Amino acid sequence: MSENNINFTDDVTTSAEPSELSKFSPGLLTFAAIATGIIMLIGLFGNLLTVVALLKCPKVRNVAAAFIISLCIADFLFCAMVLPFAISGFWTRTWSHGVALCKLVPFLRYGNVGVSLLSIALITVNRYIMIAHHSWYGRVYRKHNIALMILFSWMFSYGMQIPTLIGIWGQFDYDPELGTCSIVPDEFGRSSKTALFVIAFIVPALLILICYARIFWVVHSSEQRMREHQRSQHSNPGTLNNSTVDKRSTIKDNRETKARRNEWRITKMVLAIFLSFIVCYLPITIAKVTDAHVHYPVFHVAGYLLLYASACVNPIIYVIMNAQYRAAYAAALCCPLSRLSGLTSGAYPSSPACQHVIRKTDRTSALASYIRT
């Protein structure tokens, strides 16, 4: 097959126009296919391991972990149901999987991206309420409310694509310029791409940035108050040594400090996840806007690979930034699968790694006293 000829099966429209993929060198496309395959394998293993780890060590789980599980499931589905077709596209430079999959695959791709970003936004809001409005936390994050939030993230991400799926606001079809299936204008020239980008990307991203600005302000103010309190204690050492009340206050402050540090580690981890999401999605967006005619193919391929890497990078962040997650991964790999029965019975897995996580979590379970304002 010539590089400039695009072949399709099952009534996918044929175009004489050279696609974006046809402008890439064979070596570059082969590299992209292999790299995407590696990303897919890492993403499948890493996200599945994260879900199993959080389920196997119940004492590690908290509200944020529920949203992290949702995020991992979305990334796992992206790796399992979208990336194989990306590999095929890089390898064959065409779409050869039929009309039905040409509609389904971009539907899944856009939906999983939406779920991922909304999950990150929900985790960030969780951190914000924990830190800035702690008195609301118990009322907001009840089990049924958490389930409704997760359900909303999935239904909204996929539901807003229904008009495109049925062809009344753009349509999912083969895009000859991209050389793959995506959102294309419908018979009236309408497309949902811009609206999806604004609603499902810009709005959650702005919400996340606003929440983090507020989080940093509250944490900074809290640290200032803590330093002033410590200075006042050092200025009156006799009172501290002779007063039982002050000793209890000091112990309480130490517990709160440990809890605050633990929660701050989780908050920083979520910020790293969001920043990695931006880093992974920004290059391909810039490439599409500034190099629409593909004068620099390497830039586009790098953008695609970063986009796909967003589905496997989060477990790596968990390992690097959180010791509890590292121990939970060790427990997931070491505990027999039969121990999963302990998830419902209350008998936790007894491997040293999991028990280490349980003991460490118990020492930082004073979250109710986190950052008293």
From TrEMBL:
The chain crosses the membrane at residues 28-55, 62-87, 107-125, 146-169, 195-217, 269-289, 301-321. It is found in: Cell membrane. Residues 46-318 form the G-protein coupled receptors family 1 profile domain. Residues 245-256 have a biased composition (Basic and acidic residues). It comes from the Eukaryota. Residues 233-244 have a biased composition (Polar residues). Residues 228-256 are annotated as: Disordered. InterPro entries: GPCR_Rhodpsn (IPR000276), GPCR_Rhodpsn_7TM (IPR017452). GO terms for molecular function: G protein-coupled receptor activity. Keywords: Cell membrane, G-protein coupled receptor, Membrane, Receptor, Transducer, Transmembrane, Transmembrane helix. It is a multi-pass membrane protein. PROSITE patterns: G_PROTEIN_RECEP_F1_1, G_PROTEIN_RECEP_F1_2. One of its GO terms (cellular component) is plasma membrane. Belongs to the G-protein coupled receptor 1 family. PANTHER family: B2 BRADYKININ RECEPTOR/ANGIOTENSIN II RECEPTOR, G-PROTEIN COUPLED RECEPTOR MOODY. This is G-protein coupled receptors family 1 profile domain-containing protein. It comes from Bombyx mori (Silk moth). The lineage of its organism: Eukaryota, Metazoa, Ecdysozoa, Arthropoda, Hexapoda.
